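Q: Two folds, back to back.
A: First:
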Amino acid sequence: MKAEIIAVGTELLLGQIVNTNAQFLAQECAALGINVYFQTVVGDNEQRLTDSLKLAASRADVVICTGGLGPTQDDLTKDVLAAYAGCKLILHEPSMGAIEDLFASRGIHMVESNRRQALMLEGSTPLPNDAGLAVGNAITIEGTHFVLLPGPPKEMKPMFTNYAAKWLSTLMNEQVPLYSKMLKFAGIGESTLEHQLLDLIQTQTNPTIAPYAKEGEVAIRLTTRAHTAEEGEALMAPTMQEIQGRVGEYLYAVQDVPLEAVIVQRLTETKRTLSVAESCTGGLLSDLITGVSGSSQPFLGGIICYTNQVKHGLLGVPMDVLEGEGAPGAVSRETAALLAEGLLRTLGSDFGISVTGVAGPNPSEGKPVGLVYVGLAQKGKETQVFTLQPSGSRGMIKLRAAKSALYQLWKQLKEN
């Protein structure tokens, strides 16, 4: 089937919001075996939205709309599609009940416009909103299948994954269940991973291979149709083995979990502890780790050693290493090693990770933006230091540095 994605919202046209929904939906459709041929962005205008829906219906089997399901008068998507289909909007009672309960629990008066979020097209399939208030819709109109989703990604993604994808699957010619496996990688870039697997991606049939990317991590989803889970596993096994043979050293999980969750689990299982010293990442590494449930057991703590005084006073890095003519400086292999070793002494952890570098936007100590050193100390072993050169904005450099530090720890944990 052919699909078109329509993102609704004037704020998208003005560049006030980046349209990340289209990327997510295109990837999800590919995993379902639905080809996205067109993507459209249209503002909150009744006539232009009507024209966009008509055009999409003329050239696609599936039209997926995001946005315009909210309570205000410029949230027009359901109204416009109802007019196009010649059907009424009716109240979805479960959604209305959830909206009323929410306002009552907060002691806030609910204005009448909030009822709009519980409206659905008569004859449509409601798509529950587990993360918000506006109910989604799925409906077939004169042979074209329409899916209406909310605009906020935190609402749209679970609605599509949990409900819309299943509805779309029932429309496929061969109604055989989908089985998916998410492969998560670290320490390798999206383009490099794709290059290593390009022939597999280009010749994919069953299973399908859909690459995904987030900052610091990349993923591949394998998807197949099978009558049983065992049959699905068997169909995916040859492709899985081929991928492992090529890039298995970067594969940290065969489920959709972040790298820090795998590290926390491994540390907990082996009864070992971790502490971190962060300069250029400013606490981001600690935040990633403590975002994992159960991290309090293996994670002893972190020190944000942003200044040389803290590097020296709390972690014992000599001032003649940090400052002075001919000194290596705060951004150096020597400092990264001493910071990591200082953690073992100061906090008594089994592992110590340090991150020191230049996040930008300006050079520091005569060193370029993006130069980062990661120190990894372990009790009873020689300290390792890794040199990184992540690119991008200040925020991107910090995140990529933190994720790279986690990758180096994961490799060490995997070996012992």
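A: Second:
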Amino acid sequence: MGAARIFVARMAGLAVFGPDGERIGKVRDVVATLRLDATPPRVLGLVVELSSRRRIFVPMLRVADVDPAAVTLATGSVSLSGFHQRPNETLVLGQMLDAPVAVRESGEAAVVVDAAMEQTRSRDWVVSRLALRTGPRRLGRRNPVQVLPWSAVQGLTLSDRQGTEGLLAVFDSMRPADVAAALSELPRKRQREVVDALDDERLADVFEELSENDQRVLFAHLDSERAADVLEAMSPDDAADFLGELDDEEAGRLLALMEPEESEPVRRLLTYETRTAGGLMTPEPIVLRPDATVAEALAHVRNPDVPPALASMVFVCRPPSATPTGRYLGCVHSQRLLREAPFELVAGLVDSELARLEPDASIEEITRYFATYNLVAGPVVDPEDHLLGAVTVDDLLDHLLPEGWRDQALGHVEPGVGELARNGTGPTGSARTGVRDA
């Protein structure tokens, strides 16, 4: 790039050239993604106006050089689809400049007059600094301008600029873990507004990723009926983990409000010690009868609602198929299913020799089990050969990490899907999503 730090106001109207020197258009704006915390926003790309006056989006990964005279692209292949702004994005020239802000340390009111973007070691561009004009405007005299780091200014984060509706639009494209991280950064009042607006299924997914402290606070905001509905939508092991932290009276009251078929597996899990296989397992693994075909097994594995760790293995049992099942016969790894003909029966593929976990197996025993057999899921079987459930490596990690690890992990919010769609899905940005990046 032509400069280590570029002030965006100077880019307005710059000519944009392709790698062969052909003029493509001119810069009309710079697109950045807003964040919930004080982390500098990532620059996603440029809004370029073509000679036809059509405005398109050009990702920063396609920009080879920016100098005082022009912008040069690394490739002449850009999407000609019209630019449409997304909910978590801001236009630096059109929306950030002239925005009222405050200096974080002093609280002094100011107005943004320019923004500087810099390239990081990872080659991402961020809006690192803001040029501010502070103090009240005086007749015939301009107040001095000072350049401050982004983190020294408040009033430009996603929660500052977006109402609850805007936040929900952003959250809609994010993973539950990232929504949980973002939610934990919001003021309590805004948290409650978001919780009220999310549907039960989505809220359950997010609650499973929250720290215990945030779970308790936000569950306390819900009325009892809705709390029970959300618990029903959560996976039984996560619901049991949460209820296990409550006093017996409160846990019993919520269990009584849940539908019997939803509360029964949770009640079973609560009978086991927390740090045992019975306490960690999920009672809803993929269970098949021996006369099921490989095609049927793969259909279960492909179900997007099944977590990846659980989809790594199917368990074959005599009827009944609901846990605790009939006699446990063994398991079949998903990789084995992919190598067999669709019409083959899973009964002929069963691995009956793989060791089983007892429900009272300790954390240490489970850890050695996964390390020994290189697994991400393992069957929990009682002495009568009934399959009770399956322990997955993610459940194990939750209990191996120090208490409060989610509070530490949630301190940094990773980019959401919308941001990745602008820039590519991997570190090199070689994979693309959406016609805009073609």
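Q: And?
A: The chain has 18 helices and 18 strands.
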